[in-house]
Amino acid sequence: MKNKKLSKIEYAVTQLGETEPPFSHSGFPDEAGEFLCVCCSNKLFSSSSKFESGSGWPSFNSPFSKEAVATEVDLSHGMRRIEVRCGNCEAHLGHVFEDGPDPTGLRFCINGVALKFIPA
Prior knowledge:
Elements: H1 8-16, E1 33-37, E2 43-46, E3 50-51, E4 59-60, E5 69-74, E6 81-86, E7 92-97, E8 107-110, E9 115-119
Antiparallel strand pairs: 1-2, 1-9, 3-4, 4-8, 5-6, 6-7, 7-8
């Protein structure tokens, strides 16, 4: 269920599975807080799992909880990737790759427009 009207880019990313251009999102503060789904306010990631990947999108090494996100195989664009969706409303968030830092080795590469930051 939506808690606000989505902007054109938020809708395109979360509902149609599009991707915002790299480095197009102004980023989020480095302060402690939580990253929520822009569609349903589900807690997705903690600031403690955020890191700078240099990819152009916000990156995290683990979700807030096991139930926070869902994953599925994405065979679009001629490649095999693992899509990340909100575990509550199924909004498209981004993809997860196995090239992240310790301790998980994962890089959740998430569209910035799919997230809203709430300071601690």
